[in-house]
Design goal:
This protein is of the alpha/beta class. The strands form 5 sheets. Strands 18, 19, 20, 21, 22, 23 and 24 form a 7-stranded antiparallel sheet that branches. The protein has a 6-stranded mixed sheet with strand order 1-7-6-2-5-8, sandwiched between helices. Helix 4 runs parallel beside helix 5 (118-131). The model has no long low-confidence stretch (mean pLDDT 94).
Length: 615
Amino acid sequence: MLSPQKNATTLLRAKEWLDLDPNPVTSSYIDGLISRVEGGNDGAFQELSSLFGARIQFGTAGLRGHMEPGPRGMNDLVVIQTAQGLARYIISMRDEKSSLKAVVGYDHRENTKFNVSSKQFAMYTKLVLDQAGIKCTLLDGYVATPILAYAVTNTGAAVGIMVTASHNPKQDNGYKVYWKDACQIRPPIDAGISNEILKKENLTPWINYGEQLRKIKAESSGECCGLSDKIQTKSIEDAYFQSVLSSGLVSGVSDAPSTRPKFAYTAMHGVGCQYAKRSFETFNLPPFLAVPSQEKPDANFSTVPFPNPEEKGALDEAMAFSREKECDIVLANDPDADRLGVAEFGKESGKWTVFTGDQLGSLLGHWLWEKIGKNSVKPVAMCASTVSSKMLAAMGQSEGFHFEETLTGFKWIGSRALALQNKGYRVLLGYEEAIGFSCGSIIPDKDGISALGVIATMASFLYSRGETLASHLQKIHDKYGEFVSNNGYYRCDDPAIVKRIMEQLRNGGMYFDRVGTYDVESIRDLESPGYDSTTEDKKPTLPSTPMISIRFTNGCVAQFRASGTEPKFKYYIELRGRPGEKKFEVERRLSAMSRVILEELLQPSGNGLTLPSHL
């Protein structure tokens, strides 16, 4: 039975929302639900209660959620409220040297049922920032996320906003915020913006933006009805590719006539194809073949419901097209082109190798060191997230370049890369295992456009010497050792269980010195107050976050953390092989060890954890 008090509270919140919503479609939908609830419809009340549950949270990832009405979803009013809070924060943080400028980009996502889209969110954002006295450049047409990040420093903006949900399913959208250094926002900036958004004066639209936008649309034409800047957008894109050209990444090794691999490319129904074509031109590479069914922006993601190159089956269509056209390599950007996936067909084996993010990171790190780093006047540095492979660290130790690990997320990789540049280092690579790569410090964020050109150049060079990406990767492992990983997650819908598991791992402060028959060498617990058995003061050097890392004496590293955005408890287990040990032997040892680690430390059945294959 419904509580009359809860019923009245939900209805009140919905009616208050209705008075503020500038979108006639979403407001009509909520109005209809209210009428049905007042008529005693329990189903309508359940839906209304869901839409008006907890408000969508603004964090370091900005916003991300379903496109739907109400404070929980991505919609016109939520975007206006967010932009108003962001504007107030920018103004409050301004110093004498800072400019009151912003740049906004958007992708192709839309929900026709509710008449919301990335473009409309971007247009409302510009109207809000203009109203606040912040000069806002709205980029013209769909743009890739790396272009928006680059635009921040190119235009001298205080902030950049990219409206995209990246590789999420079609029902989602997002609002990603970059600070003036072109890096994703970090604490305490995220909390400061969030606090401003939730102030009453920013939750109420300052003016009637809906009416303002309707007038603009009625009086103007063009991509964004005159709100976007086509000339400046082209100038920014030209400058980005000029930066790629002058970065040292374009080595010229692909110029020589030789046996070249044949490339197929998929944009996964996103915005990347035009930028991928220009990347190939910049790197002096012959054109690739685009997968026609996935080449153009498609908000329905018709052939791939989970448009993430990492997802099992996501590259199936591209690989089938590639075999039809006798291509050797598939290159895949996710829909906003900040990630890069790669697959290679083995002509002798007749099988595909779909490279992991760690494998691509190893290939890129080795290539950039050999082609640029060895001859660099400045000292060289590379970064990777702490849950990425330790191969890059081993490579740095052997070759003499500086390596640092960071927390997960490119906000930490990018900000650390900027700090190292300020110390005089030439940062050649930052990467995370989730197929995110920043090559050559063009932007302090993952960039699937420039990384695509680097990988294709590398492959062209290797094929001219009778090698492949897979065979070259094996040569790298032969030199630095086999690093085999077992990364995955359990489904966990209850935050209390996650907390309980983390406490189990801490063992009451008496951290485990053995798991099964495997001896522990060191422990690092990044959650406050923190603990690191390897430091003199027993305090970790990385910022606080709920993650525990266990290093074993046999070279295995196991790391555990809860996802910040999904009901997942993630694990990352990697084993470094002994000198001369074959990969299959390391895989066998890791498989046996993983079973012991996961069972003894996480106790999946007792904690109600579910593997993805059992969902």
